[in-house]
Amino acid sequence: METKQTLLIDQLQLEVLADMIIRRLEKRLLANEERWISIEDVMKILHIKSKTTIIDMTSRGLLRYTRINAKTLLYDRDSVNEYIEKNVKGRF
Questions:
Q1: For residue 38, which of 85, 70, 87, 80 has the smallest C-alpha distance?
Q2: 73/86 Cα distance (integer angstroms)
Q3: Which 3 state secondary structure label does DSSP give 36?
Q4: Helical axes 39-46 vs 51-59, angle rounded to 10°
Q5: For residues 83 and 25, what is the distance between their CA atoms, to the nearest angstrom?
Q6: Cα dihedral angle (56, 62, 66, 71), rounded to 10 degrees?
């Protein structure tokens, strides 16, 4: 027969445990995201309405990409996130 045990933890320990669980779940979700994304996805992430702007950013080496065929580019999601991080400013 299996015996059950009760674990007593205080509020701080519970919050630390919850934070650890959330971080692990976030890592798993991020790992499941597709690495290569379309120009439309990049536009949504960066809140840019013009494909020309994205193409210009690509030509300036700000975003990594791969060419699938003559008309299709896919962008590296990590490079989009890096671009955002590099452009973080201080306080307003």
A1: 80
A2: 23
A3: strand
A4: 100
A5: 24
A6: -10
List of residues 6+ apart from 80 with CB closer than 8 A: 37, 42, 45, 46, 63
User: What is the residue type of 45?
Assistant: I
* DSSP-derived pairing of the beta strands 36-37 and 65-67: unpaired
How big is the chain, counted in residues? 92
Rounded CA separation 57/74 (Å): 14
pLDDT in tens, 11-57: 999 999 999 998 888 777 666 668 899 999 999 999 999 999 999 99
Judge whether 74 and 37 are in contact, CB under 8 Å. yes
Query: What is the C-alpha to C-alpha distance for residues 65 and 55, in angstroms, rounded to an integer?
Result: 10
Global pTM?
Answer: 0.61
* Residue 14: both structure tokens together: 């519970």
